[in-house]
Each structure stands twice: as C-alpha cells, then as structure tokens.
Design goal:
heterodimer, A: 107 residues, mainly beta, four-stranded antiparallel β-sheet, 10 strands, globular, B: 122 residues, 11 strands
Chain lengths: 107, 122
C-alpha cells in the first residue's frame, strides 16, 4: 500500500504569513493528491484535488503543487480561521485511500 | 446543499455490535459512491470502507475486514455501517463521506458528515 508522510507535523506562524506543508508518497502517484482542512469540531473539508486544482468554494489563498512523490500545500496570507490540521490524501487507483499523518497549523 | 448526518454512535462493550447510519439530503445520493472514515482520539484520518453507487462493489480496510459491513439503501438515501466484534481500538469518531464519482476508484471525498462517536468499554 502507498504510504504518505507530511512535514512539518506542526507549525506556528503569524497572521499574514505564507506557510508551506509538504507531503511525500512512498511511490509515484502521478497527481492524485488531495488536501483537506480539518478544523476542531468540524468535518474535514477538501481544499485541493489533482495536486493543484482548487476545490469550488475554497479560498484562493490555498494553493497546491507537485507531482509523482512530492507535493505541497501553500497557505498565503495566513488568517486566524486557517487554524486547523491539514491532511494530504492519495487516490491513485482504488482503495485504500491513505492519508498523511497531518500537519497542525497554529497562530 | 449536500448534507450528511451520521447517527447510531454510542457506548458499546468489547465484542458487541453497533449500527451506524448516515442520512443524505440535497443531492442525488444514488449517483455517488459513499465511504466511511474514522478518527481515533489524537490520531489522523483513517479510511475504512467504501461502497459503489449501486451497492455492488464494497471495500474494507484490513483493520475492519470481516467485522464491519457497509451497505446502502438508495430508496432511503441512507448509508450504513454494521459494526460487530467491536474492539477497544475501534474507538473513534466515524465520518461518512461522499465520493466524487459512482465508483471507488480515484476518489476524493467532497462532502462529509459531522461524525458520530463510538466508545468501547466494559
């Protein structure tokens, strides 16, 4: 099965900063990566799919990049409502659809 | 607006059974694959099961295979997860989520419920 790792596991930044989260896959998954935001007490929400395509309704300050085994999620102009844990997910083929361990973003 | 509402969580004894439900509204439930995921306390997201739009194809993660059964009733817009032989390590918030297609392949999860908590204790 494909394994995903994320770095850092947590970060603290200031309002207005730009932060980048990295997700690495154990094998080539083309661009089949999605990114989710999980705020405390709320269900996860998809932000990015196909590595860099912004989900309808997601703020444009979120952007994705990468391909094959190395992917990034960048949050520009960090806002207080961006406090959450962010997960990458691969969907290259059938299940199981693995998630990365998460990156906790604090302000 | 698509809404998914889980129910059926609660306290169950080790070895016991529980049935979770997920009622959908605001979308063509029958056109989409549906999935169950969970988050154990202090842990990340874990994908545990999926079912195709017509209910003919199912998938189970190794952690629940042989103990949990996923099903759906398209006439009732409802997804189910029958949990049997429940173990202490099944403690988690269980989420239902809609897949972005009718099939289990190449799926992201575009709508999620708020989750239902399953606790296991004797």
């Amino acid at each position: 099965d494909i394994q995903l790792t994320q770095s850092p596991s947590s970060l603290s930044a200031s309002v207005g900063d730009t932060v980048t989260i990295t997700c690495r896959a154990s094998q080539d998954i083309s661009n089949y990566v999605a990114w989710y935001q999980h705020r405390p007490g709320e269900p996860p929400k998809v932000l990015i799919y196909a590595a860099y395509t912004l989900q309808s309704g997601a703020p444009s300050r979120f952007s994705g990049g990468g391909a094959r085994t190395h992917f990034t999620l960048t949050i520009s102009r960090l806002q207080t409502e961006d406090v959450a844990t962010y997960y990458c997910q691969h969907y290259n083929g059938g299940p199981p659809f693995a998630f990365g361990p998460g990156t906790k973003v604090e302000i | 607006e698509v809404q998914l509402v889980e129910s059926g969580g609660g306290l169950v004894q080790p070895g016991g059974s529980l049935r979770l439900s997920c009622e959908a509204s605001g979308s063509s439930f029958r056109n989409y694959a549906m999935h169950w995921l969970r988050q154990a306390p202090g842990k990340g997201l874990e994908y545990i099961s999926g079912i195709s739009s017509d209910g003919t194809i199912t998938y189970y993660a190794n952690s629940v295979k042989g103990r949990f059964t996923i099903s759906r009733d398209n006439s009732m817009d409802t997804l189910y997860l029958q949990m049997t032989s429940v173990r202490v390590d099944d403690v988690a918030v269980y989420y239902c989520a809609r897949g972005d297609s009718a099939w289990l392949l190449y799926s992201t999860f575009d709508y999620w419920g708020r989750g239902t908590l399953v606790a296991v204790s004797s």
